[in-house]
Amino acid sequence: MDKILEKIEKLKHLTDPKAKKNSNAQNELNTSKDNNRHRMTQEDEDEELMAEVKEFEDEEETITHFSASPWYIKNGEMRDYQIRGLNWMISLYKSRLNGILADEMGLGKTLQTISLVGYMKHFQNKNRPHLVITPKSTLQNWVNEFNKWCPSLSVACLKGNAEERSEFIESTLNHPDKWEVLITSYEMVIIEKAALKKIKWQYVIIDEAHRIKNDESKLSVTVRMLSSANRLLITGTPLQNNLHELWALLNFLVPDIFSSDDEFNEIFDTDKCLEKDETIVQKLHTVLKPFLLRRLKSDVEKRLPPKIETKLYVGLSAIQRQLYTKLLLKDIDLLNTGGKTDKVRLLNIIMQLRKVCNHPYLFDGVEPGPPYTTDQHLVDSCGKMVLLDKLLPRLKQQGHRVLIFTQMTKILDILEDYCLWKQYEYCRLDGSTDHEIRTESIKEFNAPGSTKFIYMLSTRAGGLGINLMTADTVIIYDSDWNPQADLQAMDRAHRIGQTKTVRVFRLITDNTVEERIIYRAETKLRLDHVVIQQGRLTDSGNKLDKDQMLSMIRHGANYVFSSKESDITDKDIDDILAEGQKRTEEMKKKLEELGESQLRKFTIDNEEEAESKEKEFSVYNWEGEDWKKKQGDALGIKWIEPPKRERKANYAVDSYFRDALRQGGEPKAHKAPRPPRQPYVQDFQFYPPKLFEYLDKEIYAFRKSINYKAVKDLELPPEEAKKQQLEEQKKIDEAEPLTEEEQADKEKLLTMGFANWSKRDYIQFVKANEKYGRDDLDSIAKEIEGKTTKEVKEYAKVFWERCNELQDCEKILGQIEKGEAKIQRRISIKKALDAKMSRYKSPFYQLKIQYGSSKGKNYTEEEDRFLICFLHKLGFDKENVYDELRYAVRQAPQFRFDWFIKSRTSLELQRRCNTLITLIEKENSELEEKEKAERKNAKAAAASNKTKTPLATSDLNTSQNGKSSRASTSRSSTSVKTEAAPETPKGNSKRKSEALSKMDTSLASTSSSASKSKKAKK
């Protein structure tokens, strides 16, 4: 400890110029005391004077202290305390130290940090880049603040999906000369740590730094890997829980000094702090002073309007009472027990009770419908909604703007329906809201003259780093376990720049678990306030234990059971506000009366509180009486009295008497005794069926030897069960042990199966069949480790012969057939692409797709042509083909300015290609049908021409004129002679000569008939 304090003291001198000067003077004085006769020589004096001059020139050259807002800060002036914060951070940098800027929320920590980064550029000329790590919700806000306050800094932002990040890293991150500040989120740091580790950073700045309070978390481990010259932590809540978290922050800042957490925890143990207040507190102050700067709004900003919090208590509706009662009755045995209880189960009960308090429609089946309507039942079914329905119109009428915070996103859905019904303009933000929508909605809400009345947020997603000070009213719909989270939510509106008084309304359901949760949070907050104000830390000794959770759940149970009617008040909103203000002041006064020791000893279920001053705070103190003491239970546990049962008539008489007269439950069937150890055989090993007969025979013989009697199967009908029992008993009675021959045969059969095939081999075989098809045995063999192709072929032969013996035969065959269908599909797609490509000489330029009505609006024909052609070039059945296709698209010169196609993911390209393949297959099938029809028509035409040829020849002959018959005959004969002159093949000469002779005969007969007819006419 002394060594640590010695190092800290040296560091303190470095950061405090006055201390440094005093230290030098003291050293000089000590030197003179040690040796009075020592006098400086002229040379030593000259050397010292030169050193002072040089130091003065260095300080003149580099500004280390600002008295006004720096010139590089634009669009506004920094406040005095912000300038002091900048000077403090500069002194840290000059002393080569890291620190925590821990100003209270709303004091402008972002601006102070930006001014430090600007100082590094304009006065230190540092070329190294800076890294700012923020929550996702404040990412865009940091970018906007940098651009607003210090536009001379070049800012880059790492965000987006995997493709966008990859492109950003390649084009921007790997070129630090293009930017000076990188802003990113916690998640991006973890995902892209490999790229960020390569860069040597000047400053690593972490906003909301309590995120690294767990030194073993992924974020803490990752940020410690980053190489940086300086580190700065920003947080409005530096000390939340325990000393180990403080050590984690200090270890990140100064790992050389705070290297061992065990030593630190031992030195600053909370119990020791309580025993030796002054000494330990002084040491803690000494440790923190060089590294931490914390100022409160009340100290530095006197002009900030106050924040007034009012707790508004509401009752339960009838349906809420009913649900609350059912939940308590469901686990009443657990709540009334004095034995061990499960903490997780208790937490679940508390969560369900909180859901009832928030809105009954959070439970399935409670909301009336279908059809589901948005009307008055949305309000009347919940006490908090009834109060909101009274409060919001008043706030809107008075010109207020409202922030509503809740823990549950389902409540945001209900509030959204309510706002739509009431026609309130609103914005919404939760953990699933996209970054762009988040930024746009905040900008829209804060815009001058904005008509947005309500901004509804989830407490965790909307409670960090968001500026919504245009609102002046905050409604905490349901409170967080951690009071700091609610404070952060309030500070979205109550921050520097707010000109109106901020009203905070906290909604609490009276006489329920919510009351205890609020009271515990207020007590913890009061304790933290007392301790931290005095400069001390508190350990996490006030964790919620099982007894406290039981007390929370029991609180108000009998009140809920006492009635089924709604206890929602009909009072006017003014009366509700006045009553809430009164109860808030009463609780505040009681908490202020409790000292630190009483706060530390405070428990929700204190055994001695009945006799102590704090007894009025017991959960058992209800309506002026201590019900725990009155109960006098030996276990010391409050008994929840269930409500009286309402008996319902049971008209199913037979079932009633059967249930009433039955004594005990159904008798369980006795399991058959296990036989002596048998060889372990499985169906996929395909042993001969005879082996299983021998094994069954052994089992029945064993049962006979122990006089085992078969039992009925209770799941079967009585007659069938009796029949099966008799058959089973008959097998046992007739069983005989194996003979020597049968035993030898059994041993022989045990060698005939695939004993060396394990379950793993069998599964690999089935999957390989599914992947390659049953015929590709070579590929299947490669997939099965330790098996040769010969062994696989032998197994496959038996498998397909006897696969019907497998227990899951249908399932296995279905998997394989499904895989083979996929293979056939790939083959058919490949054929379709081959057929399409073969119709073009240059498919990359000529290919056309018949879209019909399926073209869509996103992809152009050029893009589709490229996708199909390159898919065919790569090979459709290639593994990771769409990843390669995406890479090809990004490299294609014709798409260098086509953002749409370059930003498509592999999955999106696959979907588009599937659509195009379907169109191509349709086109191919239409062409095939068309070709078939043309071939059919051609055959029909050829057949009809063949039948018409003889008739045409006859008509030609009869039309010959008699006068020209001789001439035609002579011409024909001449032509026949001339045609017969050329040489013809021997096979054809005979047929041709016969044809010519027939032609001559027909011509002759035609001419003779013509001459006879002529003579007759004469």
TrEMBL record:
Its main location: nucleus. Residues 964-975, 998-1011 have a biased composition (Low complexity). Residues 90-256 form the Helicase ATP-binding domain. Residues 752-804 form the SANT domain. Gene3D superfamilies: Homeodomain-like, iswi atpase, ISWI, HAND domain, P-loop containing nucleotide triphosphate hydrolases, Tandem AAA-ATPase domain. Residues 721-734, 926-937 have a biased composition (Basic and acidic residues). GO terms for molecular function: ATP binding; ATP hydrolysis activity; ATP-dependent chromatin remodeler activity; DNA binding; helicase activity; histone binding; nucleosome binding. CDD domains: DEXHc_SMARCA1_SMARCA5, SANT, SF2_C_SNF. Residues 13-44, 721-743, 926-1018 are annotated as: Disordered. GO terms for biological process: nucleosome organization. InterPro entries: Helicase_ATP-bd, Helicase_C-like, Homeodomain-like_sf, Isw1/2_DEXHc, ISWI_HAND-dom, ISWI_HAND-dom_sf, P-loop_NTPase, SANT/Myb. The keyword Nucleus applies. SMART domains: DEXDc, HELICc, SANT. Belongs to the SNF2/RAD54 helicase family. ISWI subfamily. This is Uncharacterized protein.
